[in-house]
Amino acid sequence: MPIKLTTYNQSKKIPDLPGNNIFHSTYLFQIYEATPNYTPFLLVATLDDKPIAKMLAVIRKAKRIFPPSIIKRCEVYDTGEFLDETIDKEAVFGEMLEHLTAKATRESFLIEFRNLDNALFGYKYFRQNNYFPVNWLRVRNSLHTAETIEERCSPSRLRQIKKGLRNGSVVEEARDEKDILEFSRMLHKKYSSRTRKHFPNIAFFEHMKNHLVHTNKGKIFVVRYNGKIIGGSACVYSGDTVYLWFSGGMTKTYLTQYPGVLAVWKALKDAKENGFCHLEFMDAGLPFKRHGYREFVLRFGGKQLSTRRWFRLRWSLINRILVKIYS
């Protein structure tokens, strides 16, 4: 019996599905659905009416000041979640990829598969669907091989953590909607384009609190000084790994409080205390380009891992040229 593929565009129509990958969950679908400029869709593969795989994609609008335009791009984290260990995962992925590519190409300018757990998985099918790979880097901290987080940090990073706490910074989990609002506004205003060029609408964090924090699938930490939020970090949990999705702080105004450092340190410390094996930073950048955020987080004792991202452009001529360049 052939595999059946079903696309869901509304969370209320998604049936109860197994799985524990947060990036292909109904929880994240609901967050995307409630955030302006985000349009999610969930692709589910079934065999004999049994779900065997699922893949969550989101199409988001990115507004550019120069040149003035609105670009739509489709993003997928990893290559989906497989719910049956007996299936040929790559073959199922190939069918899902073909279906997703046809849909996303009509609705977006660019398709991107990012944060791949296995850089070689699906290589043949990406090529068949005219995707091209770009080498990328991941930064991951192993939490289960050290007694404490601090013993992996560089000496300069340890001094900054101690100094920030001694100078009056307080790090804790966000308490309520007011904290979430203040945190997201601070991060939106202060986020450096060198860290990440896209930052979601404030509603993203409000709904993250409702759908992930309240179900123990994520946390938002804030750094306070004299009652004001000057830094923070947002984490999501998937399996035995914590993913640090967003972090930052008002480092210029509050230099000696080290809000950016303390925001990451708290995320690592909490992950360790709650028994997670790894913490991964979501965007470590290109391997052939200096990346300030990557250099910053490596001082917490993580390791660089090589991976790749797969891209496909709507413009077929340019895409064919890039496919040849990256072949």
Q: What can you tell me about this protein's structure?
A:
The chain is of the alpha+beta class and 327 residues long. 31% of the residues lie in helices and 32% in strands. It is built from 9 helices and 13 strands. It has helices spanning 26-34, 89-107, 123-128, 155-166, 177-190, 203-211, 259-273, 292-298, 316-325, and strands spanning 4-8, 38-47, 50-64, 69-77, 81-82, 110-114, 132-142, 170-173, 218-225, 228-238, 241-249, 278-281, 303-313. Strands 1, 2, 3, 4, 5, 6, 7, 8, 9, 10, 11, 12 and 13 form a 13-stranded mixed beta sheet that branches. Strand 2 and strand 3 (50-64) form a beta hairpin. Helix 4 packs across helix 7 (259-273). It is globular. 39% of the residues are buried.
Features:
13 strands, globular, 327 residues, alpha+beta, 13-stranded mixed β-sheet
Tell me the fraction of residues in β-strands, as a range. 25-35%
Secondary-structure element string:
EHEEEEHEHEHEHHEEEHEHEH
What spatial form do the alpha-carbon principal axes imply? globular
The main β sheet shows up as: 13 strands, mixed
Ends apart, CA distance between termini: 35 Å
> What's the number of helices?
9
The strand count comes to: 13
Helix and strand composition category = alpha+beta
Please estimate the helix content: 25-40%
Question: How would you state the average pLDDT, rounded?
Answer: 89
Q: How many whole angstroms does the radius of gyration measure?
A: 20 Å
Stretches where pLDDT falls below 50 for ≥5 residues?
none
